[in-house]
């Protein structure tokens, strides 16, 4: 007894040559169950962000698709699929194994392709009765060819039914958006819900408008704060950018599936992170979920018991627990300096909350101490619990970006040499260069509201978060405990210890530059391992992670602060998974990002 599930015909371009890649998935189902009540099928297909349910055949057992051209090393085409289990009595255990085959469909002599890599994520999944699961199949170019060639892949999919747990086993599998936390606009009527057209046109909407957001369509909720003297418009009225002071994006509470608790897991490099939206916290259910390791003060760090969690289990992201919220708002762009007319004007050691502006085409505020940044962020809007973005909050945005609800790949670098917000490098320029290589002037970047500009957004469209790669380094509110070097940030150990713990991620005082095991799960540091040290194109050795080879130095006592994202001229080592240590000494190249965590 068999049911066939086929994904066939991937056509791509490698260099100047066309490459046909055939991917076949066959399903095998065990005997010994009521087959009339076991129906597992494809219910959704999205290729490179575009809905293509027309690729699903009439019996819903196969998908046929053609990829876009792949011509640059590391270029990817991603098929996102959803598998539905319409059974009432049976769960489905699904595993996927891919192999290369020859023209006759037989196993090829060499299983490793010289030119492409195919990555199913996850490699295995469980689809509970009456539920659906999502996954991806990624085709990545790892070597350019100038001759025509053809490669075929066969992926065997085994589907094993098991009788449904009548006691209602706790299992986290829902990848729908039915449990997305409603954006919290807080008190004071400062945050105004808006929609943004592809050309950058901003319109006020009702908070109950069903067009405001849809995370399953990668449409994240946006809101703005207007300048004080501006009267809020009515619903459906357009808002002039000149009347906006700051722009924010909602990050709803979620749990994610752990894949690298121990830093050295070689099974996964960059892959689609499995995320489930939910307002409830995970509990300890062995093999299923893990209670997020937090201290008594509701913060994770220092003595957080990372080892309590296991790969494959789901865990509520700690960024939401530390503030006890169902989501938080993050600055849509790096923080600019109000009324600055040049990069030099925005390089200011002094400043306050009144100098903050968060919108595109602004000069990023640099040159101040972390304490100056922290105080300005904290004072910006106390009703909305404004604060300097933490490292775990950066991780929450980065992980959501690399899921089926986001761009699901590395965002494009902002290579604007004038530290202007909301820009993106043109293809095959700075994103593929080594640090410091030429090509970072303004003629090689495009604005946020252009097709190329969207590639620098966490969603791949205009609704996401920008400047998470390049621009200026983003200092985050995260430091190594009891470091004497804290004082260079403007803080003293005594003063920083007096502040509410929820505003900082605090790392163990024994942390070292490559001590990734001191990470906080969810902060997008140690989970990006394994790590390797090698020279880049500028002949300088650096530590790199396994996610796009991004630069990865962990904080330590002599360099106790963490900053993220990279610099505008960092080339291919910049990205949303970059992290580096720092002393918070003014270099004129580091800024901060604003976040809001309203409680009601």
List descriptors.
single chain; mainly beta; disordered N terminus; 3 domains; 600 residues
Q: How would you sum up this structure in a few lines?
A:
By secondary structure, the protein is mainly beta. The protein has helices at 318-322, 370-380, 391-401, 493-498, and strands at residues 2-3, 6-8, 10-14, 17-29, 40-47, 50-51, 62-64, 76-85, 90-101, 116-121, 124-127, 131-141, 149-163, 192-196, 202-204, 222-226, 238-239, 244-252, 254-257, 275-277, 289-290, 314-316, 327-331, 336-337, 356-357, 386-388, 423-425, 445-447, 473-480, 505-507, 532-535, 541-544, 561-564, 579-582, 590-592, 594-596.
Low-confidence parts:
1-32
Cα-to-Cα separation, first versus last residue: 55 Å
Q: Tell me, what's the shape?
A: globular
Radius of gyration: 24 Å
Helix content estimate: under 10%
Structural class by helix and strand composition: mainly beta
